[in-house]
Amino acid sequence: MAVYTDVSDEDVSKFVAAYDIGDVLSCKGIAEGVENTNFMLTTDLGAYILTLYEKRVDPADLPFFLGLMEHLAKRGIPCPTPVHASDGEALRSLCDRPAAIVTFLPGLWPKRITSDHCREVGEHLARMHMSGSDFDIPRPNSLSVDSWRPLLESSGRIETDGVSAGLYDVLSDELMYLESHWPAGLPSGAIHADLFPDNVFFRDGHLSGMIDFYFACSDAFAYDIGICLNAWCFEPDGSFNITKARRMLATYRIERGFTQEELDALPILARGAALRFLLTRLYDWLNTPEGAYVVPKDPMEYVRKLRFHQSVKSAGEYGLD
Amino acid sequence: MAVYTDVSDEDVSKFVAAYDIGDVLSCKGIAEGVENTNFMLTTDLGAYILTLYEKRVDPADLPFFLGLMEHLAKRGIPCPTPVHASDGEALRSLCDRPAAIVTFLPGLWPKRITSDHCREVGEHLARMHMSGSDFDIPRPNSLSVDSWRPLLESSGRIETDGVSAGLYDVLSDELMYLESHWPAGLPSGAIHADLFPDNVFFRDGHLSGMIDFYFACSDAFAYDIGICLNAWCFEPDGSFNITKARRMLATYRIERGFTQEELDALPILARGAALRFLLTRLYDWLNTPEGAYVVPKDPMEYVRKLRFHQSVKSAGEYGLD
């Protein structure tokens, strides 16, 4: 749910007049993206998304995000394409915030995940990795292993144990393991790093859009797979669905083969991915004021996922032969 | 800001399949309307608004609201038209809530009100009153003078005086006056009763849409004018702008003349309208939890408006000759 900035009708019309996209028909704040303010903008020439970048996004990262989307879209990846204004700029300013207009993608994000969705995600994730491999702006992953201990410490021992008794030590022990075993040197490039179901649109059973590249960064491709295993392959009851994982990894592999190092690293990358979302959820859980409109997500879901990955001995347990 | 109910992709697709409006391209929760959940729905045939009616709306009132919109739209009033499903029904059910699809209206609502906006509002308000005069479903105004004392009492003396010292007695005295002088027998019919700027769209300087008929009811036309005087004709600094009022009333009058009784009653109706919004704002101000996403509007704005109307001796002070 995200409309953090009110934009007046006059501001919108003036802003859009700098583009060659027709006259504004409507501009409605939408409940999409939690970091930024998003509007669905319709003009007499088409539909667009207007985004105002709020405090949580570092303006210095915007050329990476917008550049990556443009790079991928040019190569046929179904992601939003930044629209350039008449002066050539894609990144502009509205209501004292960095702002951009991107193309609108049709489709709905799925609430009930099927293995067909996972098949589509695997294929498109691999294509995205391949297409982004020659994108030359680097952006280190600011939410990777080095950031996790400070994140846990900012949640605090007492508060963390208040969520679940003994949780702080569980996470601290896991962190120690990950810090000393985190793999390096894996095939890397631009990854999405947040490809959850609400960021993926489908139409007629096929993937029609991947959105929200505002956690994208340069990191190991297989870490992106680890994130998707967590995001797409567990059932609401917490159990791992190997059929979903098998289909996701099988279609990924058709587009882009795995190295042996990636296969070996998959369990620890999936553990790391589980811990990363566990830690940010835990922090939000402890720091969202009561009665706030945004309901924080339960971090305990990721404790169960983490435990599963801790038990995995090899990539075969994710359905890979 | 209003997305109270999550609707899954499958639910939306199934719901829309019962209409003859094409296949769903997208469905995005929008920040419009505070009582209900609204989605901007696009199909391959056009754009629509999908509304789920939440607890604050009495389902028994929905045939009135939808019937009125349909009645007015048929007569050329720029308001949303309820779309009938293939079975003929406009009011259906989605996620255990009453739900309807209405046509999408282009335009932006104005943040900075000019007298040109007021001219357009006057004209269209009069046309709406004329067009609704033969709409035959009655709906008593549940937020008229009889409801105001219970509303004040539910806010409470101590809490009300906490907002501004002595406010409770000011409001109670005003209520006593309004209760004993409230006019009866004025020309009546269907009124909008909430025609604030965020419910009115403009395009190229002309009124292109009037939305949110969920406070509409059967009441005196001049009371609707009183509401619009409050909603459109005061400056951000609290001062009354007689030019705006004059233009609004002058264009109204071209479409629908005033009776002498209406002219005489205008000051008290404007006082009542100010008190009505003051009381609901006061209640929301006192009852919205801290940190909630919806920021309650300051009731004191309406104390200043009420004081102005109390000082008005005749309709001439609103710019009417």
Account of the 3D structure:
The structure is a homodimer of 321-residue chains. Chain A has 321 residues and is α+β, with helices and mostly antiparallel strands. Chain A folds into two domains: 9-103, Phosphorylase Kinase, domain 1 (2-Layer Sandwich); 115-318, Alpha-Beta Complex (Aminoglycoside 3'-phosphotransferase, Chain: A, domain 2), CATH 3.90.1200. Chain A contains ten helices and nine strands. Chain A has helices at residues 9-17, 62-74, 115-132, 145-155, 157-163, 167-181, 221-232, 242-255, 260-287, 300-311; strands spanning 24-29, 37-43, 46-52, 92-94, 97-103, 188-191, 200-203, 206-210, 217-220. Chain A has a five-stranded antiparallel β-sheet, covered by helices on one side. A two-stranded antiparallel sheet of chain A has the order 6-9. In chain A, helix 3 (115-132) packs parallel to helix 8 and helix 4 runs parallel beside helix 9 (260-287). The relative contact order of chain A is 0.13. The mean pLDDT of chain A is 94.
